[in-house]
UniProtKB/TrEMBL annotation:
SUPFAM superfamilies: Fic-like. Keywords: ATP-binding, Nucleotide-binding. The keyword ATP-binding applies. This is Fic family protein. PROSITE patterns: FIDO (PS51459). The keyword Electron transport does not apply. Residues 135-294 form the Fido domain. It comes from the Bacteria. ATP binds at residues 234-241, 272-273. One of its GO terms (molecular function) is ATP binding.
Length: 400
């Protein structure tokens, strides 16, 4: 890490660190961000305008969700899109078409399992938020364990890290430089103080600061601080971006967490990383908050557009069903399932509808004949089905 860039930082301090590696003993510095407070950072007029746009877009999304009979139908689809993009930001890429067609299981390819685990993590975290469960170190460790389950990092890197890590590599670093000197950023050293700082941050993120800090700005502060502390060996970005939505949800900005934030940031990853680094090096909160708020505004607008489009498709499919000779009440519920779950098996349909496998299969076959549903992919077993019009909306909406 180029220590000179951080020497005069107004947002943290350098602390000495040392260790031993295969290259020998080393000494360097880590950057420790200042503790979060109830004070809002000084922001430019442009930053405040970006925050206002984000608040308006988030309010419009939430109002749209509130008018729908069951806005939770859209949560599963949003999580699949978020899972694919948030993993891609960390260098694990799986096509969206594959992500929406699979469920996590033990014999899965580790990279796909890594992506799908995020859906499990987010669902668990939303359940905790809705149940009023406080955020804590044990809870955070549980989410991290679920994220790494069945992946290459599962055994070695679970929980708050116990080793020093580095982030990125400087463009000007010599090829032979020690990794810690060549790093773009060296976060908080491991130990009890790191755990305490993460605990303090969790407490801060679940406290109402709206009297002094706008919730969008608070989410930007929370995300920056989480990434600067870098509590895990692996998975910081994915957990950190999940907490953006969790924080907005807990603050009441979003009553239903249907927004996906990572697709927008994924196509602007260098701007995203540079803006985060800029807070640490120069204290440029305005650049980071502006980028963050712009991302939220665009993401909320896209989520709202997709939600309205899916609602329209849902109505069209039910009208198509109404015009047919199929009158089974479960047929309308199966359309709801096709909106809520992008692809599904006969077993999943039977469970969702509360009917036997044979009845679910007959119903699906009839709706395939009506061209409301279609088989997804080519499988000889555990076949999956989908509503093509639903996937058309999802793939359009996932474009960055």
């Amino acid at each position: 890490m180029d220590v000179r860039l951080f020497q005069n930082s107004p947002t943290g301090e350098l602390v000495p660190i040392s260790g031993t590696s295969h290259q020998g003993d080393w000494r360097h510095f880590a950057f420790v961000p200042e503790p979060v407070t109830d004070a809002s950072p000084d922001l430019t007029a442009d930053a405040y305008r970006a925050v206002a746009r984000a608040r308006a877009a988030l309010a419009a999304l939430d109002a749209t969700a509130a008018r729908l009979p069951n806005p939770r139908l859209f949560r599963q689809t949003a999580l699949r899109i978020e899972a694919q993009a948030t993993a891609a930001l960390e260098g694990t890429y799986e096509p969206l078409a594959r992500v929406i067609a699979e469920e996590p299981h033990e014999d899965q390819d580790p990279s796909l399992r890594e992506v799908l685990n995020f859906v499990t993590v987010a669902e668990r975290a939303y359940e905790w938020n809705e149940a009023g469960r406080p955020w804590s170190i044990p809870g955070l460790a549980e989410l991290h364990r679920l994220l790494l389950a069945g992946t290459r990092s599962e055994r070695a890197y679970h929980g708050i890290r116990r080793v020093q890590v580095v982030i990125g590599r400087r463009d000007d670093a010599p090829p032979t430089a020690h990794p810690i000197e060549a790093a773009r950023f060296v976060p908080h050293p491991p130990g009890d103080d790191l755990t305490a700082r993460v605990r303090d941050l969790l407490d801060w993120m679940q406290t109402d600061h709206s009297a002094t800090i706008d919730p969008v700005v608070a989410a930007a502060i929370g995300h920056y601080t989480f990434e600067a502390l870098h509590p895990f060996h692996d998975g910081n970005g994915r957990i950190g971006r999940l907490f953006i939505v969790l924080q907005l949800h807990l603050a009441g900005v979003l009553t239903e967490p249907t927004i996906t934030v990572s697709p927008w940031f994924e196509t602007r990853r260098q701007l995203y990383y540079d803006a985060l680094l800029g807070v640490s090096t120069t204290g440029d909160w305005s650049a980071w908050v502006t980028l963050f708020a712009e991302g939220l505004a665009v993401s909320a607008d896209r989520a709202r557009t997709s939600m309205l489009a899916l609602t329209e498709v849902q109505s069209q499919l039910k009208e198509q069903l109404q015009r047919s000779s199929l009158r089974a009440a479960n047929a309308r519920l199966l359309i709801d399932l096709a909106v809520a779950r992008p692809t599904f098996t006969v077993n999943q349909a039977a469970e969702a509808l509360g009917i036997k496998y044979a009845g679910a299969k007959r119903l699906i076959d009839k709706m395939v004949a009506l061209e409301i549903l279609a088989e997804y992919g080519e499988r000889n077993y555990n076949r999956r089905f989908h509503a093509p019009q639903v996937l058309d909306v999802l793939f359009r909406g996932s474009l960055r």
